Amino acid sequence: QVQLVESGGGLVQVGGSLRLACSASGITSIVGTMGWFRQAPGKEREFVAGFPWTKGDDYYGDSVKGRFTISRDKAKKMVYLQMNSLKPDDTAVYFCALDRSIRWTRPTTVSEFDFWGQGTQVTVSS
């Protein structure tokens, strides 16, 4: 069974950095798109970043573009999110997710992703 496990969350000051990691297990190979979402209390889950696993360019939500970078390690079946210049509005639970569909478009919505990790808390203090 597919499992996604996030790690790397924590407390950081405004302007600081964190690197999140997501490990995928239960599958021999990954197809589709790995992504990151975040959700603050009382708010909708928001798309953060996506990365087609086998090919294609990474892409980002407007609120994090230029500050966050998604990357992958194919051999380890891991995806990372480097978060720089953090702001209080970045405070949320961050989830990694997998969309196993092959699409002509970039998935950015919750409904397009099939598997989810448990989330890791990121808190940016001001």
Give short descriptive properties of this protein:
126 residues; mainly beta; seven-stranded mixed β-sheet; globular
How do you describe this structure in short?
With 126 residues, this protein is an all-beta fold. 0% of the residues lie in helices and 48% in strands. Strands 2, 4, 5, 6, 9, 10 and 11 form a seven-stranded mixed sheet that branches.
Count the beta strands. 11
Stretches where pLDDT falls below 50 for ≥5 residues?
A: none
Task: Sketch the major β-sheet.
Answer: 7 strands, mixed
Q: What is the 3D shape?
A: globular
What does this structure look like?
The protein has 126 residues and is an all-beta fold. It is 0% helix and 48% strand. The protein has no helices and eleven strands. It has strands at 3-7, 10-13, 18-25, 33-39, 46-52, 59-60, 68-73, 78-83, 92-99, 115-116, 120-125. Strands 2, 4, 5, 6, 9, 10 and 11 form a seven-stranded mixed β-sheet that branches. A four-stranded antiparallel β-sheet has the order 1-3-8-7, with no helix packed on it. Strand 4 and strand 5 (46-52) form a beta hairpin. The termini are far apart. The model has no long low-confidence stretch (mean pLDDT 95).
Outline the secondary-structure elements:
Blueprint: E1 3-7, E2 10-13, E3 18-25, E4 33-39, E5 46-52, E6 59-60, E7 68-73, E8 78-83, E9 92-99, E10 115-116, E11 120-125
Parallel strand pairs: 2-11
Antiparallel strand pairs: 1-3, 3-8, 4-5, 4-9, 5-6, 7-8, 9-10, 9-11
